[in-house]
Amino acid sequence: MKKQLIILAATAFSGSVLAQAPAPDANTLMNSGRFDEAKQLLLQNAQQNPSMQTYFNAGYGYLRAGQPDSARVWFEKGIATDEKRVPLNEAGVAITYLVQNPTSAEARIEEVVKKSKGKNPDILFRIGEAYTGYLTPDSGSIKPRYPKAVNAAKAIDYLNRAMERAKKNEGIKADVQLALGDAYYLNREAGTAVTRYENAIEQGMDRSRVYQRIGDIYWQGRNLNLAVENYKKAIEANPNYAPAYNQLAELYFLVKRYKDASNYIDQYVKVAGDVRPEALLRQAQFHFLANDFQRAVNLIDSNRVSLGQNPILYRIQGWAYSSLKEPQKAIENLNTFIEKAPNKVMYDDYKYLGRAYLAKEGFANDSLKAQNDSVGVAYLVKAAPSDTTENLYSEIARYYYRTKQHVEAVAALDSAAKHGFKADVQDLFRYGMSNYTLGFQRDTAGRLVRDTVRFAMADSALALAQQGSPDYAPTVLYRAKANYYAYPPEEAVQNGKARPYFEQFINMVAEKEEERNRYKKDLALAFKYLISYNELVTKDENARNEWLRRGRELLPGNQDLAKIATAEATDTEEQ
After folding, report:
1. Containing H/E element for 138?
2. In a designed cystine with 352, which of 322, 378, 460, 533 is the match (CB 3.0 to 4.6 A)?
3. Can you give 20-31 as a three-state secondary structure string?
4. How many CB atoms lie within 10 A of CB 447?
5. How far is residue 432's CA from residue 25's CA, in Å, rounded to a whole number?
6. Contact 433, 452 (CB under 8 A)
7. CA distance linking residue 292 with residue 420, whole number of Å
8. If you write DSSP's letter for every residue of 23-61 in order, what string do you get?
9. What share of the chain is helix, strand, coil (3-state, %, to 5)?
10. Model pTM greater than 0.90?
11. How far apart are CA 278 and CA 547, in angstroms?
């Protein structure tokens, strides 16, 4: 089911020139998600200037990056440099255990608090922050990096104690307020969380980071307009703040504004310098969804080394090439994907593969083309039952109709209706024409047998097609013929069911020379029918003669009409 989506008032950020900023420090890099660069700076500083703080900072970089074991190595190195009542690196070691197994860490944390006499605001802050699990933007959502560590109540307790002790240490107040915002968010107190985040700004916190957090809160509360507003505030505060671009990309992806999503993820990759395979793959996916197929292909080709051999790459390129009308490349990529990842194959793969086969040209003969097309339609048949967004049955019916396999064409369109797809004008026309063709059956002796049910089905479908496209002459013609051939000739004339459609058809093509030439035989049938109808049923001599006159005028070379006129003249002479 498609849900009504909130219309976002703001348009996509389109600036191509980003502000030139000084080289960021390690903390800024971590807050922007650039952990590898941050770790490099922190390790370099610890090696060049070993101290309690530099060792802790190095360990903290690994901790924030999601590598607690590596973090522990650096914290343990720093324990020897800890001050007597400031067991900072010992606290770091305890935290590495907390994020992996909270129960095993409780005694260590209590020992650290005891050694610091519960008075050191930095240690209290670090413990409280650890109990939030370190909230991190994650593909649009906001999640703790370490969910096992999350304990909102303990986080709030430690952070409030840190705030009380931070009176003489103004430097950490902003960090504490931000962490309190995270803790209250985890405690499902979004309003209080936003207030704490705003307090962090007042305490001097980087505005971009805070606005991004507030945007995350609004996103989780489904207030997408305010989420967008705050993410854009984050970018205004710092055009090089990468997480805000990423969140905007994911948000616009969520609401199916794929062009905006692809624009923002381009900005994110550029600002963040993110060459992780998952980020580059996401970028290619967003451009594919935005129908920028060539860009998607180019992104994969230009980042092939970074992206590695992820089978999904072949899927995206296969889908893209299918849409770019390069069927051979589509077939090659999709077959490679299916070969490499058979357990990940989905109906869309068969859909694009089927379309690629059907679009392929350049065969030596019709037989090879027919074999190729039969493979393509077989893939569409596999995909159709699972596709709830595109009516693949219509494409299947188009193929069967084109190849004069009318039973299969009707069956495909019946399946479309069973799966809830509404037939368009072309579907209705094909359904009508296939049933019309099937109305001419042969018995075991080879004699023609009229299938009145098929003709009735043809007329019903063509009537609906006529509503959608009233000026299409073939629809009216075959309504007439369906009502004519459903009965023996005399009965068809007597019941008059074909009359209004033959009349309408004549009027539609009478003034169009090209169509008159195309439909000469059908026009002759129409005139003969109307002449007979007015002669035998209405007994309206004037109407009968007028149809004969018009027929001779439009079809001067038609022998049947000439014979009727000649017979009429003979009868007059004899009288």
Report:
1. strand 135-138
2. 322
3. CCCCCCHHHHHH
4. 8
5. 71
6. no
7. 30
8. PP-HHHHHHTT-HHHHHHHHHHHHHHS-SHHHHHHHHHH
9. 75, 5, 25
10. no
11. 74
Which pair of tokens denotes residue 528?
């003969």
CA dist 241 and 283 (Å) reads: 18
Residue with tokens 């089905």: 457
In whole angstroms, give the CA distance from residue 76 to residue 91: 10
Gap between the Cα atoms of 241 and 277, Å rounded? 20
CA distances from 216 to 135, 236, 344, 509 (A): 10, 17, 32, 64
- Going by the DSSP 8-state scheme, the letter that residue 273 receives in this structure is T
What is the per-residue DSSP string for 441-455? EE-TTS-EEE-HHHH
Q: Which residue bears the tokens 């905007």?
A: 248
Cα(274)–Cα(254) distance, integer angstroms: 21
Q: What are the structural domain ranges in the chain?
A: 405-486, 498-574
Other CB atoms closer than 10 Å to residue 166's CB: what's the count? 20
Give 172's Cβ-side CA count (13 Å radius). 23
pLDDT tens for each residue of the chain, 575 residues long: 333 222 222 222 223 333 344 566 777 777 766 777 777 887 787 788 888 988 899 889 889 888 999 999 989 999 999 898 999 999 999 999 999 999 989 999 999 999 999 889 999 999 999 999 999 877 667 889 999 999 999 999 999 999 998 876 667 889 999 999 999 999 999 999 999 999 999 988 889 999 999 999 999 888 999 999 999 999 999 998 989 999 999 999 999 999 999 999 999 999 988 888 888 999 999 999 999 999 999 999 999 888 888 899 999 999 999 999 999 999 999 999 999 999 999 999 999 999 999 999 988 888 999 999 999 999 999 999 999 999 999 999 999 999 999 999 999 999 999 999 999 999 999 999 999 999 998 888 888 888 999 999 999 999 999 999 999 999 999 999 999 999 999 999 999 999 999 999 999 999 999 999 999 999 999 999 999 999 999 999 999 999 999 999 999 989 999 998 887 555 444 43
Which two structure tokens, joined as six digits, stand for 15?
Answer: 């600036």
Angle between helices 499-509 and 520-536 (to 10 degrees): 140
Indicate the length of the chain as a whole number.
575
| Secondary structure (DSSP) of 202-213 | HTT--HHHHHHH
* Residue 199 to residue 201: CA distance in whole angstroms: 5
Largest Cα–Cα separation, the chain: 137
Tokens of 369: 């083309």
In this structure, is the dihedral angle defined by the CA atoms of residues 500, 506, 507 and 509, taken in order, positive or negative? positive
| Cα–Cα dist 241/230, whole Å | 13
Long-range contacts of 545-554 (CB under 8 A, 24+ apart): 550/506, 550/510, 551/523, 551/524, 551/527, 554/506, 554/510, 554/516, 554/523, 554/527
Cα–Cα dist 399/401, whole Å: 5
CA distance 104 to 68: 15
Listed in order, strand segments (DSSP E) in 242-332 are none
